[in-house]
């Protein structure tokens, strides 16, 4: 108890000492002369849900693994919870939860055994059964992990990532293989964790997931950040022109305008039939595709 | 405090170690048939070479010569061959990567694995010794402590080398290398035949021969372990685990 209390005090002090959860300047990682990460600057505030988007091989996972302390960097300055992940010890590691992209499991263990095992590393861990319930695996509690489906194993990964009550949680494509209901349940869990103070870094291929969860996001392509913003403003999305379509005298008409108000007023005044009227702005997916398309 | 609020922290290192040792033992128990099978070769050697004149031994007390050698062989089989193969596959399956994401340190994992292997060896040695006693082995009980001492050193050395191999080679290569080393050691390790006399250098090159010789000196003659053997096994027990702790990779 004393140890737990003193570590809590220490955590509070370090919170005061360093307001940002993650600070990265000029991060580079070179494999055999090729830049996998070619100069990334990044700041993630405490309590924020930050999402990294990008195609396969863009450098997302490499970046995240450097932040997690799993990979060495070639150059750049990295601070995660106030420490350099390349040098930080096990006390730092204990403050971080990681849901790896491609970890397998001690296949001969049951879900409950594995979660309870990892819980044993933390002084104020969540109860194993509570975490298993949170990720919706209660029915599989006593099943060997190797008998589970891909999506169920992914949920075990999530359970293991949060059981130690980390202050910073890395999720690398966490919902791959989830069915829609499990994804919604997972999103609720992430929102609850964030609302209660956990900082979350999420990499994902699903743009709806990033849009639903992220406070801020960055798009990575070819080892660089090509755009950064909120889901609503990313890549000038809010400022992009609206696309107005309607049918006039049997012909399909389309116009792009910054603000559709005047156009609609004119159409109304002209007595045009607006039954088929649609006004669309670029979706996050449109913006994303044009952003990564521009680097090709 | 809400159950969703962060409460980060690391359990005391001894708790983390105890947790990991318990897990390693549980996993060992889950592959219990492999643990029993691992005793097959030692058992065959014990009964074959111990009871019948199938090989030339430098003594007429066949069981007195063969049983200590078989105990040493079991230690190598479990701490080195079995451990290298298991850990190699664990690493390639990504099991260890997950532990790398936890507050368990590299030396912590190596220590836990070695401790779990020691427990497994204690059980196997006990079983084989009982079989030996049942078929007429009559060891000297006076020098049990040094016999245990060299066994712990040998275990640590084998375990370190196993984890090093598992860490730098592919699992298939690890399996091949560990099996090859096992067969070579079995042939020239002075278990079924007298070991080639390489002098003191031999103890450093053939830990199995050194360990077997130390067990014979103590259990067969009630004597003391030669200083050269203490030194050789101590070097193994320090060098390989230290190198493994530096080189070990989680994935």
TrEMBL record, chain A:
GO molecular function: ATP binding; ATP hydrolysis activity
Primary localization: membrane
UniProt cross-references to Gene3D superfamilies, sorted A to Z: P-loop containing nucleotide triphosphate hydrolases (3.40.50.300)
Annotated GO biological process: response to antibiotic
Keyword Cell membrane recorded: yes
Domain ABC transporter: 22-247
InterPro entries attached to this UniProt entry: AAA+_ATPase, ABC_transporter-like_ATP-bd, ABC_transporter-like_CS, ABC_transporter_ATP-binding, P-loop_NTPase
Locations listed in the record: Cell membrane
Cross-referenced SUPFAM superfamilies: P-loop containing nucleoside triphosphate hydrolases
Any single Gene Ontology cellular-component annotation: plasma membrane
PROSITE patterns: ABC_TRANSPORTER_1 (PS00211), ABC_TRANSPORTER_2 (PS50893)
Keyword terms, alphabetized: Antibiotic resistance, ATP-binding, Cell membrane, Membrane, Nucleotide-binding, Translocase, Transport
A family per Pfam: ABC_tran
Membrane topology: Peripheral membrane protein
Family: Belongs to the ABC transporter superfamily.
Protein name: ABC-2 type transport system ATP-binding protein
UniProt source species: Actinoplanes italicus
TrEMBL record, chain B:
Residues covered by the ABC-2 type transporter transmembrane domain: 44-219
Gene Ontology, cellular component aspect: ATP-binding cassette (ABC) transporter complex
Subcellular location, record wording: Membrane
Record keywords, A-Z: Antibiotic resistance, Membrane, Transmembrane, Transmembrane helix
Chain ranges passing through the membrane: 32-52, 64-89, 110-137, 143-168, 180-205, 225-245
Any single biological process term in GO: response to antibiotic
Name used for this protein in its record: ABC-2 type transport system permease protein
């Amino acid at each position: 108890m004393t140890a737990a209390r003193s570590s809590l005090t220490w955590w509070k002090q370090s919170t005061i000492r360093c307001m940002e959860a993650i600070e990265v300047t000029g991060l580079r990682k070179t494999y055999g002369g090729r830049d996998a990460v070619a100069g990334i600057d990044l700041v993630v505030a405490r309590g924020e849900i930050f999402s990294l988007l990008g195609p396969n091989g863009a450098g997302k996972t490499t970046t995240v693994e450097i932040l997690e302390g799993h990979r060495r960097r070639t150059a750049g300055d990295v601070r995660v919870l106030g420490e350099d992940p390349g040098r930080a010890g096990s006390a730092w590691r204990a403050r971080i939860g990681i849901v790896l992209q491609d970890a397998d499991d001690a296949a001969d263990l049951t879900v409950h055994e594995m979660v309870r095992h990892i819980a044993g590393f933390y002084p104020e861990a969540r109860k194993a059964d509570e975490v298993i319930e949170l990720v919706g695996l209660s029915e599989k509690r006593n099943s060997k992990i190797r008998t589970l489906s891909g999506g169920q194993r992914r949920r075990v990964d999530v359970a293991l990532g949060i059981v130690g009550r980390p202050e910073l949680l890395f999720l690398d494509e966490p919902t791959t293989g989830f069915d829609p209901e499990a994804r919604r349940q997972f999103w609720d869990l992430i929102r609850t964790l964030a609302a209660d103070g956990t900082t979350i870094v999420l990499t994902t291929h699903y743009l709806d997931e990033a849009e639903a969860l992220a406070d801020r996001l960055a798009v990575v392509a070819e080892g660089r950040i090509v755009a950064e913003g909120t889901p609503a403003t990313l890549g000038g999305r809010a400022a992009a022109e609206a696309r107005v379509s309607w049918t006039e005298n049997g012909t399909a008409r389309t116009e792009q305008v910054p603000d559709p108000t005047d156009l609609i007023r004119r159409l109304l005044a002209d007595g045009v039939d607006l039954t088929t009227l649609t006004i669309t702005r670029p979706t996050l997916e449109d913006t994303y595709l044009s952003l990564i398309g521009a680097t090709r | 405090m809400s159950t969703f609020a962060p409460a980060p922290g690391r359990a005391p290192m001894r708790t983390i170690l105890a947790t990991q040792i318990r897990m390693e033992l549980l996993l060992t128990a889950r592959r219990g048939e492999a643990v029993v099978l691992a005793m097959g070769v030692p058992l065959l050697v014990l009964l074959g070479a111990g009871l019948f004149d199938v090989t030339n031994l430098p003594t007429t007390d066949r069981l007195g010569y063969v049983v200590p050698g078989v105990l040493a062989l079991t230690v190598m089989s479990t701490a080195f061959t079995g451990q290298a193969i298991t850990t190699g596959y664990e690493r390639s399956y990504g099991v260890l990567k997950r532990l790398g994401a936890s507050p368990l340190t590299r030396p912590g994992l190596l220590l836990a694995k070695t401790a779990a292997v020691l427990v497994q060896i204690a059980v196997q040695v006990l079983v084989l010794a009982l079989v030996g006693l049942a078929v007429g082995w009559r060891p000297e009980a006076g020098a049990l402590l040094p016999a245990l001492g060299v066994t712990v050193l040998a275990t640590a050395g084998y375990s370190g080398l196993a984890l090093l191999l598992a860490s730098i080679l592919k699992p298939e290569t690890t399996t091949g290398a560990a099996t090859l080393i096992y067969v070579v050691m079995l042939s020239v390790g002075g278990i079924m035949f007298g070991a080639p006399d390489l002098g003191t250098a031999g103890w450093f090159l053939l830990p199995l021969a050194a360990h077997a010789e130390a067990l014979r000196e103590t259990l067969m003659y009630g004597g003391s372990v030669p200083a050269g053997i203490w030194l050789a096994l101590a070097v193994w027990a320090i060098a390989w685990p230290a190198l493994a702790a530096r080189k070990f990779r989680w994935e």
